[in-house]
């Protein structure tokens, strides 16, 4: 008997129709008891995929594929399959999942999208990160991004990739993706542009990583406690001085710029904004997922 | 008059413009340590990061934070580091790493430029450092006089600066007190 993994795609508001990391929560929950049966993931209600949704989907499939005899993705329309193709999704998963549509013609019609700053990329080791950063920096430079913007995007990506490579060791390593939008995707509708940086790994997660150091015992009772603690300056698994600054600074800079950093690990999820941190419980799932929103501030009209 | 010191410049931009990850930072630190140890005692290595476009926190901590910590602890003998960098965003991660470690380093905007400090240093130490910079070379007694401090308080401040690697010192002619010297 097949297992149908459900999604929670919003039908109203700014995130209507978007495959976000949060919209995958029912699927993360639904694959807990898989025992080899076929799995169907229905993406037909998805109209738009953001990088955190894409990385989350990749991590979900890496979990599901070894636990089921067949994985079927149901897709509809043109935009979402074309986007997945542009983001290299079918190059990474095309021979491991079955789709209800023929995706081969998408490859032939493939065109570069200037908003794609980093296709879905799979990496395992810290040594692969500089080349990823060199490439995205070149794309940003060619597209006229200011040095300050390039530095913000590249250092965000390098720090979260490095965390995944160091703490997120798993059979599939980690996935990252970066996309630029000519509008604001996250939250309320407002004028501006936004760059979304996302990563997903299949490692043991933040709470288990911090728990290896007894000094963190009182801060790791729950996943959300551990996430809050991990976002403090200088908190690291090893406790060495100088460690545990990268993620904190990335979160601070994103928040100061009017964006946010969201991190999901285990059954916790926390989002850091300029003036607040929101946390909520989510279905437990292996790995750590980070999504960073970096708004681009456009000059005011008539300025 | 300050003693003439051996000086060498290490241009980090010769290694790359985009400096990310601890692993890359470790490689640069090893190259910097080799250059530092190639200097005679009292020598100064100018770490020139101008031309580097970005340096993430992990790289900054691994390449500079750890190196400054080792120099301050005396691991590399009487040798010093000076950062050559303009006042720009790239300094933020160097500053964050040094503050995290309770350390600081001398920065000049260009070779021969006016020195300032990057990292965490208390106001009273900064005042003392400025007095030493302004004198170039000064005995503890003269420094105490200029700052209006008693000898012990002044000696503590100057010793702290020496332990942070921000100034050099040598025994004075009398052999009873140190002469403190600027390094850049």
Provide a descriptive summary of the structure in words.
The complex is a heterodimer of chains A (303) and B (184). Chain A has helices at residues 25-30, 51-64, 79-86, 89-93, 104-108, 129-142, 147-167, 206-211, 223-230, 246-256, and strands at residues 3-5, 18-19, 39-42, 48-49, 71-74, 98-99, 116-123, 174-181, 193-201, 260-272, 277-296. Chain A is an alpha/beta fold and 303 residues long. Chain A folds into 2 domains: 1-111, Transcription Regulator spoIIAA (2-Layer Sandwich), CATH 3.30.750; 113-303, Heat Shock Protein 90. In chain A, the strands form 3 sheets. Chain A has a 5-stranded antiparallel beta sheet with strand order 7-8-9-11-10, with helices on both faces. A 4-stranded parallel beta sheet of chain A has the order 1-3-5-6. Chain A has a two-stranded parallel sheet with strand order 2-4. In chain A, a hairpin with a 4-residue loop joins strand 10 (260-272) and strand 11 (277-296). Chain A is globular. Chain A starts with a strand and ends in a 7-residue tail after the last strand. Chain B is α/β, with parallel strands linked by helices and 184 residues long. Chain B has 2 domains: 1-120; 121-184, Winged helix-like DNA-binding domain superfamily/Winged helix DNA-binding domain (Arc Repressor Mutant, subunit A, Orthogonal Bundle), CATH 1.10.10. Helices cover 41% and strands 22% of the residues of chain B. A 5-stranded mixed beta sheet of chain B has the order 1-3-5-6-7. Chain B has a 3-stranded antiparallel beta sheet with strand order 8-10-9. In chain B, helix 3 (91-100) links the parallel strand 5 and strand 6 (104-108). The longest helix of chain B has 16 residues, at 22-37. Chain B is globular, with a radius of gyration of 16 Å. Classes of the chains: A alpha/beta (303), B alpha/beta (184). Chain A binds chain B through residues 126-127, 129-130, 133-134, 137, 147-148, 150-151, 154-155, 158-159, 162, 166, 233-234, 241-243, 245-246, 249, and chain B through 16, 18, 20-24, 53-54, 56-58, 61, 65-66, 69, 89-90, 92-93, 96-97, 100-101.
């Amino acid at each position: 008997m097949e297992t149908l993994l459900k999604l929670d795609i919003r039908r109203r508001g700014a995130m209507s129709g978007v495959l976000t990391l949060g919209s995958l929560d029912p699927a993360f929950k639904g694959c807990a008891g898989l025992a080899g049966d076929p799995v169907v993931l229905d993406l037909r209600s998805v109209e738009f995929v953001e990088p955190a949704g894409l990385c989350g989907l990749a991590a979900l499939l890496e979990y599901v594929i070894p636990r089921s005899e067949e994985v079927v993705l149901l897709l509809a329309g043109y935009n979402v399959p074309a986007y997945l193709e542009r983001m290299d999704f079918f190059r990474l998963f095309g021979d491991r999942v079955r789709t209800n549509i023929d995706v081969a013609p998408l490859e032939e019609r493939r065109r570069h999208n200037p908003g794609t700053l980093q296709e879905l990329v799979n990496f395992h080791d810290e040594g692969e990160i500089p080349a990823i950063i060199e490439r995205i920096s070149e794309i940003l430079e060619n597209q006229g991004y200011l040095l300050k913007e390039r530095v913000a995007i590249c250092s965000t990506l390098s720090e979260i990739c490095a965390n995944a490579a160091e703490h997120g060791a798993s059979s599939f390593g980690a996935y990252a993706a970066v996309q630029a939008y000519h509008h604001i995707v996250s939250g309320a509708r407002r004028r501006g542009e936004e760059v979304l940086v996302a990563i997903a790994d299949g490692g043991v997660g933040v709470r288990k990583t911090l728990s290896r150091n007894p000094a963190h015992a009182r801060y790791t009772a729950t996943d959300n406690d551990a996430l809050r603690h991990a976002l403090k300056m200088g908190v690291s698994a090893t406790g060495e001085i100088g460690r545990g600054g990268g993620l904190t600074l990335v979160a601070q800079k994103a928040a100061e710029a009017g964006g946010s950093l969201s991190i999901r690990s285990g059954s916790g999820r926390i989002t850091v904004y300029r003036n607040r941190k929101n946390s909520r419980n989510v279905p437990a799932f292996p790995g750590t997922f980070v999504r960073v929103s970096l708004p681009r501030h456009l000059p005011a009209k008539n300025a | 008059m300050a003693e003439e010191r051996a000086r060498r410049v290490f241009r980090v931009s010769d290694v790359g413009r985009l400096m990310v990850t601890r692993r890359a930072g470790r490689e640069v630190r090893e190259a910097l340590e080799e250059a530092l140890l190639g200097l005679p005692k009292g020598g100064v290595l100018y770490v020139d990061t101008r031309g580097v476009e970005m340096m993430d926190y992990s790289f900054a901590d691994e390449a500079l934070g750890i190196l400054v910590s080792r120099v301050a602890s005396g691991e590399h003998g009487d040798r010093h580091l000076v950062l050559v960098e303009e006042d720009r965003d790239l300094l933020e991660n160097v500053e964050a790493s040094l503050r995290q470690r309770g350390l600081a380093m001398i920065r000049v905007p260009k070779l021969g430029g006016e020195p300032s400090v990057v990292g965490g240093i208390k106001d009273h130490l900064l005042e003392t450092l400025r007095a030493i910079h302004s004198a170039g070379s000064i005995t503890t007694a003269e420094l105490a006089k200029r700052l209006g401090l008693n000898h012990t308080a002044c000696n503590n401040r100057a010793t702290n600066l020496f332990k942070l690697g921000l100034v050099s010192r040598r025994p004075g002619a009398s052999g009873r007190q140190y002469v403190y010297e600027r390094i850049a």
